[in-house]
Amino acid sequence: MSASIAPPERAWAEVDLAALVANGRTIAQVSGSRLLPMVKANGYGLGAVAVAQALEALDPWGFGVATTEEALELRAADIRRPIVVFTPLAIADIDLMLSHDLRPVVGDIAALQVWCGRGEAPYHLEIDTGMGRAGIRWDDHEALGRVGELADRGREGVFTHFHSAESAASTEEQWQRFEGVLSGLGSRPPLVHAANSAAALAGPRYAGDLVRPGIYLYGGSVAGRTPRPVVRLRTRVVAVRRVRPGDSVSYLASWTASEPAEIATLGIGYGDGLPRALSNRGHIELDGCPAPIVGNVTMDMTMVAPAEPVEVGAIATIFGGSVTLDQQATAAGTIAYELLTGLGTRVRRRYGNPT
């Protein structure tokens, strides 16, 4: 029996882990603080385990995730550093978190009482200074008084979340509110943290004891700083055809040829994470040249109109080449976070330096 031959990949993401580490090093140097990298949402779509293992080179304090399941994936990969689960603590998760040495985020008195009643395991107290999402409000003096009445055992960290970290005025306002809460808690906890990528890149002012970088690590620009590109999303041409004037392309005939043209069909669609919003508006790189997306992006395939003839098997770069991650996100009317975290399971992640 002949050996099986793997089919060629239709879509893949090339992840440059060296660039990821370099971006993390920049944040550490500018902020002067230790890293608590956010690796939630499968490492912003790039693979949480691979990302965390690469970032070990920077000696981070620990890692941040959104869910207990995400934390357990890291523990199963033998990642032993502290892991903070940033979704507010659910009482039903306490036994699981204790058995796997996970740090919960606690932002209400009821959950705090239950956690503290189980012993002295570390937790991080969330203070809402304006995000309006979770945590004890900075001006809820009754709740903060209750926090002060509880023993501070286990209170490893206190943190807040900036809602507009690229705005100096709003960040400073939230920081002042946060400092007011800290001074009222009595003894300062071992770890104070607030800064995301943008605030960390502003320097040491908001760095605290830890900074929580996210999008900048993964190649998204923030605060006027452009990181090293980390990921290139690529696909192959799976079909080529000529169309005549008046011929339409894709569902709903949303694009019609005004002159003879060549149409290349790419093996990627919104089922893989290419936003449908790019229909008739986005561009990709094909054979080193920009090619506009024509017609509606479909679930599995996308059509483009290259300037020069191409062949089946040619490689197209969706972002990470001449079209950057941020440029493609802007074209789609969204943000870089959504493009990365939207990458589907059919898109294989290749680790190393892009070729």
Structural class by sheet pairing and helices: alpha/beta
Radius of gyration: 24 Å
pLDDT < 50 stretches: none
Q: What is the element string, with H for helices and E for strands?
A: EHEHHEHEHEHEEHEHEHEEEEEEEEEHHE
Beta content: 15-25%
- The total of beta strands comes to 19
On the 0 to 100 scale, the average pLDDT is 94
Helix content: 25-40%
Q: Biggest sheet, in brief? A: 8 strands, mixed
Our count of helices gives: 11
Task: Please give the alpha-carbon distance between the first and last residues.
Answer: 34 Å
Coarse shape: elongated
What report would you give on this structure?
The chain has 355 residues and is an alpha/beta fold. 26% of the residues lie in helices and 23% in strands. It contains 11 helices and 19 strands. The strands form 4 sheets. Strands 1, 11, 14, 15, 16, 17, 18 and 19 form an 8-stranded mixed beta sheet that branches. Strands 3, 4, 5, 6, 7, 8 and 9 form a 7-stranded parallel beta sheet that branches. Strand 12 and strand 13 form a beta hairpin. It starts with 10 loop residues before the first strand and ends with a strand. The relative contact order is 0.14. The mean pLDDT is 94.
What are its keywords?
11 helices, alpha/beta, 7-stranded parallel sheet, 19 strands, 26% helix, 8-stranded mixed sheet, 355 residues
